[in-house]
Amino acid sequence: MVQARIRQRIKSSMQSGRALEGKWILEYEPAEAKRPDPLTGWAGSGDTREQVRLGFPTLEAAKAYAQANGLDYQVSVAGVERNLKLQTYADNFKGPDISL
């Protein structure tokens, strides 16, 4: 059977907003190993499913698609969400808090 991986989209370090964060992505597992091209040396394979990435609004929708199409799937849960520590720019230069 065809293997698939369902994961939640995470924000890359190059983006500041969180517009598409939280969407779910279904990706196919590679069916064959990559091998170097004799002419260019680039790694590649004949597996075209590796280029397919499907987006879903919820985890349930992604699971329903996989089950409807007979895909074995594995859900990858993202790491722990970080809480941002809000501070002003002046806080970077504040000295130690000395209380007597």
Strand order of the largest sheet: 5-2-1-6
Helix content: 10-25%
Integer average pLDDT: 85
C-alpha geometry: elongated
Strand content: 15-25%
Number of strands: 6
Radius of gyration: 21 Å
**Class computed from helices, strands and strand pairing:** alpha+beta
Order of helices and strands: EEEEEHE
Low-confidence stretches: none
Describe the structure.
By secondary structure, the chain is of the alpha+beta class. Helix content is 10%, strand content 24%. It has one helix at 59-68, and strands at 3-8, 24-28, 35-36, 43-44, 53-56, 72-76. The strands form 2 sheets. Strands 5-2-1-6 form a 4-stranded mixed sheet, with helices on one face. The protein has a two-stranded antiparallel ribbon with strand order 3-4. Strand 3 (35-36) and strand 4 form a beta hairpin. The longest helix has 10 residues, at 59-68. It is elongated, with a radius of gyration of 21 Å. The relative contact order is 0.25. The mean pLDDT is 85.
